[in-house]
Structure formats: C-alpha cells, structure tokens
Amino acid sequence: MDIAYFTKTLEGLSLERAAEMTVALGFDCADLLIREGHAVSPERPEEIVKAAKLFAEAGVRTPMATIDSTRPDDSTSRLVGCCGEAGIGQVRLGFWRYDPSRRWKLQVDEARRDLDGFERLAERFGVKLTIQLHGGTLHSSGALARQLLTGRDPVRIGAYPDPANQIVREGSEDWRLSLDLLDPWFCCIGVKNGGWFPGAYGADGQRAWHSDWYGLDEGMVPWNEIVPHLVATGFAGVLSVHSQYRVPREQALGKARADLAHLRRLVAAAKEQNHA
C-alpha cells in the first residue's frame, strides 16, 4: 500500500515548496492535485513531468494524480498523456454531477459514453483512470458507481471509495459492501474522517444537523476496522490522505501529521496481527 498526501491543502504554493511540505509532514508519496491555483495547472500539462521529478528529488513518489476532467477531449488527453510520461500510475477523474431535473438513466448513459473514451485514453497512455465516490454525483455510493464500472477493464478504469464522503455527504453504505461491490476495480481509497452533530431547533420545531471533518481517530468512519481488512486482503493500491479541515492551513497540516501517525499505527498493528 502507498500512503499518499493529497496536495489540495498546499494550494498557492510553488512546486518546490509543495514537495518540501509533503516531506515535512512525513509522507513519502503524493496524490498530486492538478487544478488552477495549485502547484500544477491543467493549462500547463508539461508541468506534471516536472512536478514528479521535483517530488522524486525530495524523496516523494507520485503514484497518483487528481484531475477534474469528465470529457475525454484533447486537453484531457494531454493531461493523461503527461501523467503517463511522468510515471503516475493512477489518475482520478472529475465528478459526473447528478442533475435532479433530468432522468437518471439519461445521465448515466452519457457518463458511460464519456468513460468509453476515457478507457481508450487509459489504454493509450498506460495509466489507470479512477472514479471517486462523492456526494452530488452519479457515483456517490458503491452501488451507483458500479453502474458506471460494469463491463470495464479494471486494468484501465478503477474505483476510488471514500468512506468519509459517504457518511458526511451521501451514498452511505456498509464499508464492506462498498468494497465488495467495487471489486475488482478497487485500487484507491480516500482517507479522512467526519461526522454529524446536532444544531438548534428551528421555528418549526425541527432540529438542524450539521456535518464536519474530524481527526482520523475521532469521526464516524471505523478506520480501526477498515485498515486491518485492507492489510488482511493484501490491498496494494493507494491510500490518499485528505486534510479537509475547515481551519487555517498550518492547523490543518498539524492535523495531517497526526492523521498520518495514527494511520501508520493502524497499518503496523494490522500487519503484526496478520503475521501472528
């Protein structure tokens, strides 16, 4: 398993500084976010190769990148091609948003046509393109994502479950069910935690509820159960650690260090138990 830091928190930093910060946090792998305002812009795909080299020089591998594309057009082809050239094995695609004003089946058919094109791009450039479970999309749960994945080559198209997204946003399932549904495409998992807390009662007498992100050892996602399962089943993909905390960056980075330490403790304990 590769434990990679999702570089979203490093928005606005140079490539060099982003690499330094990833090392300072204790990570030896990165999930490189390719987005305007971040270290690599999708308008400059050639920077992807440069980024991978800079991170490697700092001692950080880049097994994964994240892009926002949902159309297999020429600009996306350049992004995917540069990821392949940089040796990045997995690339997370963008989100196919659910539009409640349109029939679900029509939207799924459109997304599947897009994915047909992405599967060809993946084969052409020798990478795996993944679909992340995320709220507000046609793939918020394992069951929904499977509608898009069925019939696809798991060497080229992968599944990226995200248990905290499924709890805090939508798409909640037993985590075992999600992983079972997404086999054999399962190749990456989003690592963060979150939960819900009660708010005040409104004028109509109904209590409001709110969600937030919590430390890896504090939220509703049972990572103490998921990690041992991943170890026991020989999962060899990417654990992408997200720092979604709604706090200033330095505070979020401190929480990321704590999350990494907790995750590594869970992995070490699971490996020891597995070999007992």
From TrEMBL:
One of its GO terms (molecular function) is isomerase activity. Pfam families: AP_endonuc_2. SUPFAM superfamilies: Xylose isomerase-like. InterPro entries: IolE/XylAMocC-like, Xyl_isomerase-like_sf, Xyl_isomerase-like_TIM-brl. It comes from the Bacteria. Residues 23-265 form the Xylose isomerase-like TIM barrel domain. This is Sugar phosphate isomerase/epimerase. The lineage of its organism: Bacteria, Pseudomonadati, Pseudomonadota, Alphaproteobacteria, Hyphomicrobiales.
